[in-house]
Amino acid sequence: MSTNIVFIGLGNMGLPMAQNLVRAGHAVTGFDLLPASVQQFADGGGLVSDDQAAAIQAADIVITMLPASRHVLGAYLGDAGILAQARPGTLLIDCSTISTEAARQVGRAAEEKGMPMLDAPVSGGTAGATNGTLTFMVGGEESALAAARPCLEIMGKAIFHAGGSGCGQTVKICNNMLLGILMIGTSEAIRLGVANGLDAKVVSDVMAKSSGRNWTLEVYNPCPGVAENVPASRGYTGGFGVDLMLKDLGLAMESAEASGASIPLGALARTLYDMHSKAGSGGLDFSSIYRLQDTPA
Ligand code: NAD
């Protein structure tokens, strides 16, 4: 059955996710602040409209994939926000990575309006978004997840219910802190091998079959020339930006402060991505942290 879906935020992740919903036969109307992204969506068969309020009012499901907490709060709350425009009963799914607190704030406001809402951040990168193999980490009511499942299954292959509102974001923040740390560790290890005369591919292949094995090494290798179809092989373009990783490590710091958890490696990783961003690399894929070590200490 075709569902009437509004998808807001057609960036690196949102565009391929929305395109998969279109390919599955749903009527998806896409919105983004960037006209070029909207055009790309239309070129692939997506619906576009000049009237976002009317599209939201007619929607069965509204999905958002926006950069950070402030964009999500801005999109949902206020007089012109999604909650003011959607009909009661409309299913709301925010797939952005934002703070647990912001997710709960929007979730509470949605509940007051009679709209079931899930925080459903994702893992799997742009390749996962393109191939429909994302992992969804979901917070919210079981009944809302049951209603969302057919749609999430088109965009992803693993769907985890982490708990109530905001819990999807908490587990996503834990995951991305680990990812940020692993990318730095993988970069250091490959560079150590190369500095000692080894070929980067040899070091990577051996470690990928040894105990240093991890996703940043096997699927998303940060050293140019080792793997095909990864950001490192195309000048660190596309993928997951340094500034988005920096945002996620900031969320980890906030969560640690709020809970009293100790995250010394997360804090160090944040400092290194911050240095890298300030050196002008904020828009590059986060695997470009490999290059930070080009800078003499
Ligand atoms: P992106 O910056 O490429 O895309 C965000 C899009 O949102 C942009 O096109 C922007 O124009 C649009 N936008 C911002 N405000 C808007 C508004 N009010 N209305 C309509 N459009 C608006 O970011 P991305 O890489 O697609 O990431 C999106 C989210 O997914 C982030 O929270 C990120 O942390 C998370 N994420 C990204 C990846 C990845 O690999 N890129 C992986 C997992 C999770």
TrEMBL record:
<comment type="pathway">
    <text>Amino-acid degradation; L-valine degradation.</text>
</comment>
<feature type="domain" description="3-hydroxyisobutyrate dehydrogenase-like NAD-binding">
    <location>
        <begin position="166"/>
        <end position="292"/>
    </location>
</feature>
<protein>
    <recommendedName>
        <fullName>3-hydroxyisobutyrate dehydrogenase</fullName>
        <ecNumber>1.1.1.31</ecNumber>
    </recommendedName>
</protein>
<dbReference type="Pfam" id="PF03446">
    <property type="entry name" value="NAD_binding_2"/>
</dbReference>
<dbReference type="InterPro" id="IPR011548">
    <property type="entry name" value="HIBADH"/>
</dbReference>
<keyword id="KW-0101">Branched-chain amino acid catabolism</keyword>
<keyword id="KW-0560">Oxidoreductase</keyword>
<dbReference type="InterPro" id="IPR013328">
    <property type="entry name" value="6PGD_dom2"/>
</dbReference>
<feature type="active site">
    <location>
        <position position="172"/>
    </location>
</feature>
<dbReference type="GO" id="GO:0008442">
    <property type="term" value="F:3-hydroxyisobutyrate dehydrogenase activity"/>
</dbReference>
<feature type="domain" description="6-phosphogluconate dehydrogenase NADP-binding">
    <location>
        <begin position="5"/>
        <end position="163"/>
    </location>
</feature>
<dbReference type="Pfam" id="PF14833">
    <property type="entry name" value="NAD_binding_11"/>
</dbReference>
<dbReference type="InterPro" id="IPR008927">
    <property type="entry name" value="6-PGluconate_DH-like_C_sf"/>
</dbReference>
<dbReference type="InterPro" id="IPR006115">
    <property type="entry name" value="6PGDH_NADP-bd"/>
</dbReference>
<dbReference type="InterPro" id="IPR002204">
    <property type="entry name" value="3-OH-isobutyrate_DH-rel_CS"/>
</dbReference>
<dbReference type="InterPro" id="IPR029154">
    <property type="entry name" value="HIBADH-like_NADP-bd"/>
</dbReference>
<dbReference type="GO" id="GO:0051287">
    <property type="term" value="F:NAD binding"/>
</dbReference>
<dbReference type="GO" id="GO:0050661">
    <property type="term" value="F:NADP binding"/>
</dbReference>
<comment type="similarity">
    <text>Belongs to the HIBADH-related family.</text>
</comment>
<keyword id="KW-0520">NAD</keyword>
<dbReference type="InterPro" id="IPR036291">
    <property type="entry name" value="NAD(P)-bd_dom_sf"/>
</dbReference>
<dbReference type="GO" id="GO:0006574">
    <property type="term" value="P:L-valine catabolic process"/>
</dbReference>
<dbReference type="InterPro" id="IPR015815">
    <property type="entry name" value="HIBADH-related"/>
</dbReference>
